[in-house]
Amino acid sequence: MSSAGVNGEAGGHAGGIHRFVVFGDICGSGTLDLAEKKHQRAAMYAAFDDAYSSVGVEPGTFHQEDRGDGILAALRPDVPPTLMVGRWIDTLYESLRTHNQGRARPLRLRIGMNAGLVAQDRHGLVGRAVDLAARLCDSTPAKRIMNETPEIDLVVVVSDWLYGNVVAEGGRYVEPDHYRSARIRSKETDETAWFHVPRRPAPPLIGRDGELPPEGERPPAGDPEAAGERPPARAARTGVGPSRGDGPTPRPVGGNREYHVGGDLLDVHGNTIHGGFTGIRKDSGRGTGSAPSGTGAGTGAATGAGEPE
Fold first, then answer.
1. How far, in Å, CA of 162 to CA of 168, rounded?
2. How far apart are CA 270 and CA 99, in angstroms?
3. DSSP letters for 43-78
4. Which pLDDT tens digit goes with each residue over 262-282?
5. Closest of 80, 77, 109 to residue 93, by C-alpha
6. How many Cα atoms are found within 13 Å in the side-chain-facing hemisphere of 238?
7. Which of 38, 76, 112, 224 is most buried, by the most CB atoms less than 10 A from its CB?
8. What is the residue-wise DSSP string for 141-184?
9. Chain centre distance of CA 32
10. Rounded to whole angstroms, how far apart are CA atoms 4 and 309?
11. What is the pTM of this model?
12. Helix (H, G, I), strand (E, B) or coil at 298
Protein backbone atom coordinates (compact mmCIF):
# COMPACT_ATOMS: atom_id res chain seq x y z
CA MET A 1 0.00 0.00 0.00
CA SER A 2 1.29 3.44 -0.90
CA SER A 3 0.33 6.85 0.41
CA ALA A 4 1.43 8.55 -2.83
CA GLY A 5 -2.09 9.71 -3.56
CA VAL A 6 -2.55 11.09 -0.06
CA ASN A 7 0.30 13.53 0.33
CA GLY A 8 -0.27 15.20 -3.03
CA GLU A 9 3.31 14.92 -4.28
CA ALA A 10 2.89 12.35 -7.04
CA GLY A 11 4.05 13.77 -10.35
CA GLY A 12 5.65 16.86 -8.81
CA HIS A 13 9.32 17.86 -8.45
CA ALA A 14 10.60 15.74 -11.31
CA GLY A 15 14.19 16.42 -10.25
CA GLY A 16 13.53 15.20 -6.71
CA ILE A 17 13.51 16.93 -3.34
CA HIS A 18 15.62 16.30 -0.25
CA ARG A 19 13.81 13.86 2.04
CA PHE A 20 14.53 11.58 4.98
CA VAL A 21 14.22 7.93 3.91
CA VAL A 22 13.48 4.93 6.13
CA PHE A 23 13.65 1.32 4.97
CA GLY A 24 12.50 -1.34 7.47
CA ASP A 25 12.55 -5.12 7.17
CA ILE A 26 11.32 -8.00 9.35
CA CYS A 27 14.09 -10.47 10.17
CA GLY A 28 13.47 -14.13 9.43
CA SER A 29 10.09 -13.61 7.81
CA GLY A 30 10.77 -16.45 5.40
CA THR A 31 10.60 -18.92 8.29
CA LEU A 32 7.13 -17.79 9.43
CA ASP A 33 3.82 -19.35 8.53
CA LEU A 34 1.08 -17.19 7.03
CA ALA A 35 -0.67 -16.46 10.32
CA GLU A 36 2.56 -15.35 11.99
CA LYS A 37 3.53 -13.26 8.96
CA LYS A 38 0.26 -11.37 9.19
CA HIS A 39 0.69 -10.90 12.93
CA GLN A 40 4.24 -9.55 12.63
CA ARG A 41 3.30 -7.23 9.76
CA ALA A 42 0.50 -5.74 11.83
CA ALA A 43 2.88 -5.31 14.77
CA MET A 44 5.50 -3.66 12.52
CA TYR A 45 3.00 -1.13 11.20
CA ALA A 46 1.77 -0.42 14.74
CA ALA A 47 5.35 0.18 15.92
CA PHE A 48 6.03 2.52 12.98
CA ASP A 49 2.81 4.41 13.71
CA ASP A 50 3.84 4.84 17.36
CA ALA A 51 7.23 6.15 16.27
CA TYR A 52 5.74 8.64 13.79
CA SER A 53 3.27 9.87 16.37
CA SER A 54 6.08 10.48 18.88
CA VAL A 55 7.76 12.98 16.54
CA GLY A 56 4.57 14.70 15.39
CA VAL A 57 4.42 13.15 11.92
CA GLU A 58 0.72 12.77 11.16
CA PRO A 59 -0.80 10.07 8.92
CA GLY A 60 -1.15 11.22 5.32
CA THR A 61 1.74 13.70 5.55
CA PHE A 62 4.41 11.30 4.30
CA HIS A 63 4.85 8.63 1.65
CA GLN A 64 4.91 5.00 2.74
CA GLU A 65 5.08 1.84 0.63
CA ASP A 66 4.44 -1.74 1.66
CA ARG A 67 7.30 -4.13 0.85
CA GLY A 68 5.71 -7.40 1.94
CA ASP A 69 7.87 -8.03 4.98
CA GLY A 70 9.02 -4.43 5.18
CA ILE A 71 8.24 -0.74 4.78
CA LEU A 72 9.76 2.03 2.67
CA ALA A 73 8.96 5.59 3.75
CA ALA A 74 10.02 9.11 2.77
CA LEU A 75 9.17 12.05 5.00
CA ARG A 76 8.45 15.65 4.14
CA PRO A 77 11.52 17.94 4.02
CA ASP A 78 10.33 19.92 7.04
CA VAL A 79 10.60 16.93 9.44
CA PRO A 80 13.70 17.54 11.63
CA PRO A 81 16.11 14.64 11.00
CA THR A 82 17.36 14.80 14.60
CA LEU A 83 13.90 13.65 15.73
CA MET A 84 14.10 10.66 13.40
CA VAL A 85 17.50 9.46 14.65
CA GLY A 86 16.50 10.25 18.23
CA ARG A 87 12.96 9.98 19.56
CA TRP A 88 11.68 8.04 16.52
CA ILE A 89 14.23 5.24 17.01
CA ASP A 90 13.71 5.23 20.77
CA THR A 91 9.93 4.92 20.44
CA LEU A 92 10.25 2.17 17.83
CA TYR A 93 12.51 0.25 20.22
CA GLU A 94 10.08 0.64 23.12
CA SER A 95 7.16 -0.46 20.95
CA LEU A 96 9.02 -3.60 19.92
CA ARG A 97 10.02 -4.32 23.50
CA THR A 98 6.42 -4.05 24.69
CA HIS A 99 5.09 -6.20 21.85
CA ASN A 100 7.74 -8.90 22.27
CA GLN A 101 7.34 -9.52 25.99
CA GLY A 102 6.56 -13.19 26.51
CA ARG A 103 6.45 -14.04 22.81
CA ALA A 104 8.16 -17.14 21.46
CA ARG A 105 8.66 -15.47 18.05
CA PRO A 106 9.53 -11.81 18.73
CA LEU A 107 9.25 -9.17 16.04
CA ARG A 108 12.80 -8.18 15.06
CA LEU A 109 13.58 -5.35 12.66
CA ARG A 110 16.48 -4.03 10.62
CA ILE A 111 16.17 -0.32 9.79
CA GLY A 112 18.13 1.57 7.14
CA MET A 113 18.14 5.39 7.27
CA ASN A 114 19.39 7.90 4.73
CA ALA A 115 18.58 11.35 3.37
CA GLY A 116 18.93 12.84 -0.09
CA LEU A 117 17.18 13.65 -3.33
CA VAL A 118 14.07 11.55 -3.87
CA ALA A 119 11.68 11.64 -6.81
CA GLN A 120 8.16 10.32 -6.58
CA ASP A 121 5.68 9.28 -9.24
CA ARG A 122 2.42 7.37 -9.21
CA HIS A 123 4.37 4.11 -8.81
CA GLY A 124 6.42 5.12 -5.78
CA LEU A 125 9.84 6.44 -4.83
CA VAL A 126 13.07 6.50 -6.79
CA GLY A 127 16.53 7.90 -6.22
CA ARG A 128 19.99 7.00 -4.96
CA ALA A 129 18.95 7.96 -1.44
CA VAL A 130 16.28 5.25 -1.62
CA ASP A 131 18.69 2.69 -3.08
CA LEU A 132 21.23 3.27 -0.33
CA ALA A 133 18.63 3.07 2.45
CA ALA A 134 17.67 -0.38 1.11
CA ARG A 135 21.32 -1.46 0.91
CA LEU A 136 21.92 -0.32 4.51
CA CYS A 137 18.94 -2.30 5.76
CA ASP A 138 19.95 -5.42 3.82
CA SER A 139 23.71 -5.13 4.46
CA THR A 140 25.68 -8.19 5.50
CA PRO A 141 26.82 -6.71 8.86
CA ALA A 142 23.20 -5.85 9.78
CA LYS A 143 22.00 -9.35 8.91
CA ARG A 144 24.94 -10.88 10.76
CA ILE A 145 24.08 -8.95 13.93
CA MET A 146 20.50 -10.18 13.86
CA ASN A 147 21.28 -13.75 12.82
CA GLU A 148 24.00 -14.33 15.40
CA THR A 149 22.73 -12.18 18.28
CA PRO A 150 19.15 -13.38 18.83
CA GLU A 151 18.58 -11.23 21.91
CA ILE A 152 18.71 -8.07 19.75
CA ASP A 153 15.34 -7.01 18.37
CA LEU A 154 16.35 -3.83 16.52
CA VAL A 155 19.41 -2.70 14.59
CA VAL A 156 19.56 0.72 12.92
CA VAL A 157 21.99 1.45 10.09
CA VAL A 158 22.50 5.05 8.97
CA SER A 159 24.46 6.37 6.02
CA ASP A 160 27.82 8.05 6.48
CA TRP A 161 26.28 11.36 5.38
CA LEU A 162 23.48 11.07 7.91
CA TYR A 163 25.86 10.16 10.71
CA GLY A 164 28.28 13.00 9.98
CA ASN A 165 25.63 15.68 9.50
CA VAL A 166 22.94 14.66 11.98
CA VAL A 167 23.85 11.87 14.42
CA ALA A 168 27.30 13.26 15.24
CA GLU A 169 25.71 16.53 16.38
CA GLY A 170 23.90 14.68 19.16
CA GLY A 171 20.62 15.69 20.74
CA ARG A 172 17.91 14.19 22.90
CA TYR A 173 17.84 10.40 22.52
CA VAL A 174 20.78 10.66 20.09
CA GLU A 175 23.97 8.90 21.23
CA PRO A 176 26.73 9.26 18.60
CA ASP A 177 29.22 7.29 20.70
CA HIS A 178 26.93 4.26 20.63
CA TYR A 179 27.36 3.86 16.87
CA ARG A 180 30.24 2.19 15.08
CA SER A 181 31.18 2.10 11.44
CA ALA A 182 31.68 -0.76 9.01
CA ARG A 183 32.02 -1.04 5.26
CA ILE A 184 29.11 -2.34 3.20
CA ARG A 185 29.60 -3.73 -0.27
CA SER A 186 26.57 -4.80 -2.28
CA LYS A 187 26.01 -4.56 -6.02
CA GLU A 188 27.21 -1.07 -7.00
CA THR A 189 27.39 0.09 -3.37
CA ASP A 190 30.69 0.46 -1.54
CA GLU A 191 30.03 2.75 1.41
CA THR A 192 30.80 3.35 5.05
CA ALA A 193 27.72 2.81 7.22
CA TRP A 194 27.07 3.38 10.92
CA PHE A 195 25.40 0.70 13.04
CA HIS A 196 23.42 1.20 16.24
CA VAL A 197 21.60 -1.11 18.65
CA PRO A 198 19.42 0.86 21.09
CA ARG A 199 20.35 0.50 24.78
CA ARG A 200 23.80 -0.84 23.92
CA PRO A 201 27.05 1.13 24.06
CA ALA A 202 28.04 -0.40 20.70
CA PRO A 203 26.76 -3.07 18.31
CA PRO A 204 28.67 -6.38 18.38
CA LEU A 205 30.91 -5.68 15.39
CA ILE A 206 34.66 -5.42 14.93
CA GLY A 207 36.78 -4.53 11.92
CA ARG A 208 36.06 -2.30 8.93
CA ASP A 209 33.92 -4.97 7.28
CA GLY A 210 31.73 -5.50 10.32
CA GLU A 211 32.91 -8.88 11.55
CA LEU A 212 31.39 -10.20 14.74
CA PRO A 213 33.80 -10.82 17.63
CA PRO A 214 34.38 -14.47 18.65
CA GLU A 215 31.57 -15.91 20.73
CA GLY A 216 31.65 -14.56 24.27
CA GLU A 217 34.13 -11.80 23.45
CA ARG A 218 33.60 -8.06 23.13
CA PRO A 219 35.36 -5.65 20.75
CA PRO A 220 38.74 -4.67 22.22
CA ALA A 221 38.58 -1.67 24.55
CA GLY A 222 40.25 1.42 23.17
CA ASP A 223 39.99 0.26 19.57
CA PRO A 224 38.77 3.35 17.68
CA GLU A 225 37.00 1.24 15.07
CA ALA A 226 35.29 -0.87 17.74
CA ALA A 227 34.11 2.34 19.39
CA GLY A 228 32.61 3.59 16.15
CA GLU A 229 35.21 6.24 15.42
CA ARG A 230 36.50 7.13 12.02
CA PRO A 231 39.92 5.51 11.52
CA PRO A 232 42.71 7.95 10.58
CA ALA A 233 43.57 8.25 6.93
CA ARG A 234 46.24 5.74 5.96
CA ALA A 235 48.95 6.14 3.39
CA ALA A 236 49.39 3.54 0.69
CA ARG A 237 50.83 0.34 2.11
CA THR A 238 53.80 -1.23 0.39
CA GLY A 239 56.70 -3.51 1.25
CA VAL A 240 56.85 -5.75 4.30
CA GLY A 241 56.63 -5.52 8.06
CA PRO A 242 54.71 -2.68 9.69
CA SER A 243 54.15 -0.87 6.38
CA ARG A 244 52.06 -3.85 5.29
CA GLY A 245 50.03 -3.80 8.48
CA ASP A 246 51.83 -6.69 10.20
CA GLY A 247 52.29 -4.81 13.45
CA PRO A 248 54.38 -2.10 15.06
CA THR A 249 58.15 -1.87 14.93
CA PRO A 250 59.64 -4.20 17.60
CA ARG A 251 60.52 -2.50 20.85
CA PRO A 252 64.20 -2.09 21.76
CA VAL A 253 65.51 -4.81 24.07
CA GLY A 254 68.74 -4.12 26.02
CA GLY A 255 69.65 -1.17 23.81
CA ASN A 256 69.40 -3.20 20.59
CA ARG A 257 66.46 -4.25 18.43
CA GLU A 258 65.38 -7.87 18.41
CA TYR A 259 63.86 -9.35 15.26
CA HIS A 260 62.18 -12.58 14.23
CA VAL A 261 62.01 -12.49 10.45
CA GLY A 262 61.87 -14.80 7.50
CA GLY A 263 63.45 -12.69 4.76
CA ASP A 264 65.76 -9.79 3.97
CA LEU A 265 65.66 -7.05 6.57
CA LEU A 266 67.25 -3.61 6.81
CA ASP A 267 66.86 -1.36 9.83
CA VAL A 268 68.56 2.05 9.75
CA HIS A 269 67.86 3.38 13.23
CA GLY A 270 69.50 6.25 15.06
CA ASN A 271 72.13 6.80 12.35
CA THR A 272 73.03 9.90 10.39
CA ILE A 273 74.10 9.20 6.83
CA HIS A 274 76.08 11.80 4.86
CA GLY A 275 77.14 11.82 1.25
CA GLY A 276 76.14 9.42 -1.51
CA PHE A 277 74.43 6.35 -0.12
CA THR A 278 74.25 3.54 -2.68
CA GLY A 279 73.34 0.45 -0.69
CA ILE A 280 74.42 -2.27 1.68
CA ARG A 281 75.66 -5.67 0.65
CA LYS A 282 74.04 -8.48 2.55
CA ASP A 283 76.48 -10.69 4.47
CA SER A 284 76.03 -14.36 3.65
CA GLY A 285 76.82 -15.60 7.14
CA ARG A 286 74.80 -15.56 10.33
CA GLY A 287 75.79 -12.93 12.84
CA THR A 288 77.00 -9.38 12.37
CA GLY A 289 76.12 -7.85 9.03
CA SER A 290 78.82 -5.78 7.33
CA ALA A 291 78.99 -3.23 4.56
CA PRO A 292 81.77 -2.57 2.11
CA SER A 293 83.76 0.60 2.59
CA GLY A 294 82.55 3.64 0.71
CA THR A 295 78.86 2.75 0.92
CA GLY A 296 78.17 5.32 3.59
CA ALA A 297 76.43 2.81 5.87
CA GLY A 298 76.35 3.59 9.59
CA THR A 299 77.93 1.23 12.04
CA GLY A 300 75.97 -1.24 14.12
CA ALA A 301 75.20 -4.92 14.50
CA ALA A 302 72.22 -6.96 13.41
CA THR A 303 71.46 -10.25 15.06
CA GLY A 304 70.58 -12.99 12.62
CA ALA A 305 69.93 -10.49 9.82
CA GLY A 306 68.35 -12.06 6.78
CA GLU A 307 67.66 -15.46 8.37
CA PRO A 308 64.81 -16.78 10.52
CA GLU A 309 65.40 -17.27 14.22
1. 9
2. 66
3. HHHHHHHHHHHHTT--TTSSEEEE-SSEEEEE--TT
4. 555 455 445 555 555 455 454
5. 109
6. 2
7. 112
8. HHHHHHHH-TT--EEEEEEHHHHHHTGGG-BTTB-GGGEEEEEE
9. 29
10. 71
11. 0.66
12. coil
